């Protein structure tokens, strides 16, 4: 075996070991708190449903049966059917895919932009901080849902613009959180030592400040998934999010509202699905907050 092959193999093993060690540490953190454990199990169940939706759903979510419209829950349709005879259970299962995918994309967008702006503002301070924060104040001054609706209606009603709109709404909170952490971490001795050694600002921010700002980022990102799920459902309910025939919990509730007094299950079950998903991520976020921010296991400092 050549030296290059040996080095590559060694680096792969090292990378795999770090991933496994990180996963084990993450599980210890989650397991140390009952709220985090309960939330994690709910989220894990949602992810399982989303991944294996084609195998779990008893019917094609778009298949219509006009002979079985608004049918009550039964052995054939455990959660009943909607006004076009589509199986509600199948649509909820496939709706999990869209809900989680959109929420995770939204939080990823929020994290990438929000963390970057927060680091820059907190590290450079002064005019840079003032400029960034005043720009974010403009976004904060507009009601979040209204801002999302304006963006979607301006750029077009589709799933991508919905994700962009919700992601933009969440950026200010992430930026403020990271900025607050960066301002305090910047005064630590190890950061000043790194600057004294001549490290450039990018290296100081990414190697010394960002790793120590991870706990609040993780907590906020987790709870924001729950809020994103609500906003996605709200936009879909208003006809500005996921468009038919794609299954969406919010759109399902919207289509069923006129039948609520006659057949409540088409609106009740999608609403329960939203509540369970939001509960799972909220519990996970609350548990992680207790562990990571208020005296839990996460007490390491990356110098």
Automatic annotation (TrEMBL):
Example GO BP: transmembrane transport
CDD domains found in the cross-reference section: TM_PBP2
Gene3D superfamilies hit by this protein: MetI-like (1.10.3720.10)
GO CC annotation terms, alphabetical: plasma membrane
Keyword Thylakoid in record: no
Domain ABC transmembrane type-1, chain residue ranges per copy: 96-285
Database matches in SUPFAM superfamilies: MetI-like
Main location per the UniProt record: membrane
Protein name (database record): ABC transporter permease
Species whose genome carries this gene: Haloplanus aerogenes
